[in-house]
Design goal:
CATH class of one domain: Mainly Beta
Oligomer: single chain
CATH topology of one domain: Immunoglobulin-like
Structural class: alpha+beta
Order of helices and strands: HEEEEEEEEEEEEEEEEEEHH
Distance between the termini: 173 Å
Largest sheet: 6 strands, mixed
Radius of gyration: 53 Å
CATH architecture of one domain: Sandwich
CATH superfamily of one domain: Immunoglobulins
Number of strands: 18
Shape: elongated
Length: about 325
Amino acid sequence: MLRKYIFIFMLAPLIKKDAVHSVDVTIPEKVVVAKAGSSVVLPCQYSTSVGANFVLEWSFAPNTADTSDGRQIYYYSNGKSYKPGSQSERLNINHNPPTTGIASIQLNDIRSSDTGSYVCEVNNPPDFYGSGSGIVKLSVLVPPSTPNCQFNGKANIGHDITLTCSSSNGTPPPIYTWSFVGSKTPLLPNMMENQRTGSLLLTNLSQAFSGTYQCMASNELGQASCELTLTVTKNAEAGIIAGAVIGVILALLLILAVLYYVLCYREKQKKISKSDYPGSEIREDAMAPAIPVANKGSNTTDSFLLHETIGRQENSKFSMVV
């Protein structure tokens, strides 16, 4: 009897496992590629006996994120659907309710931000066996945006310079092709192009490098271009130009200084002319100081001094008149 119970106890887990159904999720198309602005179906199929605890969930992880960090975009439970993600207005379930073995979703008006991994997960307790999830990768094709053309370095004879070209958007990554506008050949011998990075290296510059350069960015959906004009100059010419600019600036500063000085001088003269400077006035009708006349009784010496004094005054008056 004891042996019988032991045998039943050992078989119990196997009997329980056979009685439980498994959940198997299948992704018919693991990679979906579509153009921006179109609609896509992200496929997901499953097999299980749907019960009261059946739950379907879709989550989305952007292209640079891990699937474990994905955010929920669709949820079905107890006969109700929920769309909590930012894509809710563009997302629809293909079969509603999704209880017939098809859990595919449709995404409308797709854009570059929709590129990433989509995880379809089915839970149906007590069915815990099998593979309950699958991943679909969506790649949204976007034509290249208008690239930006610029150059790094000095465009002087004998120097090297690098032209760069880059588009901010484009899936798959665009290919960049440079051309020398007006030249019979696409590029000169001293031009080295990198179509992946969009750079164009010009070595040992000469006057022949002067002109317009065009960069074309292209992928499967379209192309866009930009242009820049390069003028190669001599080092001496560059110095002359810089000197001329500095000379003009100094001349302007000198003119401004002269004008400022003149204005300040005029203002000073106006203030002086308005000032009051009193001076001594000589009246024409003023009388000369009286000379005392000697008395009759004065001695001869006094008389001689009197005549001498009068004579000097007369000579002085004569000199003033002349």
